[in-house]
Amino acid sequence: MTRWTTKLDGSDLPDKLLIGGKGWSVARMAALGLTVPPAFVITTEACTEYRRTKDFPDGLIDEIAEGLSWLEAQTGRTYGHGPSPLLVSVRSGAAISMPGMMDTVLNMGICGETETALTEECGDPAFARDTHRRFHELYSHIVLKTDAGELSNDDTAQDWAETIRAASGKDLPADPTDRLHAAVRAVFESWDSRRAKRYRKHHDISDDLGTAVVIQAMVFGNMSGASGTGVMFSRNPIDGNPTPYGEYLVNAQGEDVVSGKFTPRPLDTMRDTVPEAHDALLDGARRLEVENGDVQDIEFTVQDGTLYFLQARAAKRAPEAALKIATDMLDEGTIDEATALTRITPDQVRSLLAPRLADGAAASAETLARGEAASPGIGIGVVVTDSDEAERRAANGEAVILARATTSPDDLHGMIAAMAVVTERGGSTSHAAVVSRALGVPCVTGCGDATVTALAGRTITVDGAEGLILADALDVQEPDETALSGIVRLTRIAEGVSPVRVILPGDAPSSALDLNAVEGGSELDRLPELLKGVDIAGGGALADDKGVAIAVAAGVKTIVGQPRLAILLAALRAQKTNEDRETIAVEASV
Predict the structure, then answer these.
(1) Which residues contact 423 (CB under 8 A, 6 or more apart)?
(2) pLDDT (tens digit, 9 = 90+) per residue, 122-152?
(3) Where is the Pyruvate phosphate dikinase AMP/ATP-binding domain (predicted)?
């Protein structure tokens, strides 16, 4: 490892805070002997220095050059030149997974010379041209921050450059190395993008962590009919079923799947064209789940029948899946009780116990559209097709449904504000689906062109579990938390270790402090003062996880509220945070 970079050859496994989740994943998979394209990583420390100075730290350019030389030695290819050109991807990699929030540029190193060299090497000018076009589209969008529209393979690189210049007023650097440096800068800067900041705020992730940048040799899913790309989960992230789940797109690159621009096929279709790669993928997924003790979200590419693992991380999962997976893994002995309590969040518990459609409501309703059941739950509201509008109307107290042809990271604020998200294209591993599951928002994808956006202004009900878009606001009913065995089981476990006791409102004694009846009781900044010397309290700001944390710090013994498990989990997280802070303080004083 040098000052700002390290090679991800599996010989070492640096701290995830330093090399990011993606870099750690690549190194881990290489150490396990899985087939991984060679890569090196620029550390989060370099990002922190770049954010401070707005420039590369001293020595980074030389280390990038050294890393490229190492990739050339590993692959037998040459960056920016023929006869066997090396192309690389430039990917963000935060320590804490932030799917779709930061930037990636693929096919870096393609230029006129290398397109010709690729054509001569593989004998397929259409593949080389398609790869060159893809680079121009991503570079203009990510690095030059402009929308040059969809470029055509029938045009020349000069035509593409002129289109981009007309849209952005900027030229692409001629030197592939200068292009690479610009892409690294763009990835660093994406850490401070509006969408990334909103995501971190929503998930209480520190703004100080920064992102690593993984520079990895490209493999090509768009090379032939025996090539493709996909995303797979070692268990179903929607319902928790313990069987592999995913999607695959023949003759495509990864961006085609995650962007939602194309609707891929089920994972099983790999068997028809690349059966050996399919079997290797299932075997690798099993190994990764055992090694990491959690459900894996795996990005992969098949190039001419050979499988390459690109990334594996803990999967974002819908609330139903989080509950089932936690209890299943507990039964299997994969995790212990303490770990099981960390595998479901307070918000996911609340989502599980949110209203459901009343019996018979769907059967009597008009079905407006059907799609992929991408994230379960019920969302009722007025359809809007613009994320800014969704955020504005939701802030005014209106329930809205965000409908888009497909979502992008720039739609995050609208997705957070919406009661549900519906798209016309994309599948259950698209950006809309993955982010909705992370947010606990109902989502239906792939409803078909000109379907859901045509519903703008209408009130609809979205059933994310069934993939249905239904007319009007339908009747809902409250589920009974005592009827969900998984909730009951985890509640019992949490009760044994939680720093507070939680009772239902109907069981509260008259001595309990009701913050709903106290002036300022709903304000977090007033809570420490109001809870001073109080043993039992409920209502007001205690409905918020931050309020629960304040109660734990204040020494409150019993909280009145529901769902009980959500409050217990929030209290346990607050206790863990306090213990971590105390440990850091002690270590700092030594």
Answers:
(1) 260, 371, 403, 404, 405, 406, 407, 430, 432, 443, 444, 445, 446, 447, 452
(2) 888 988 998 999 999 999 999 999 988 889 9
(3) 54-265
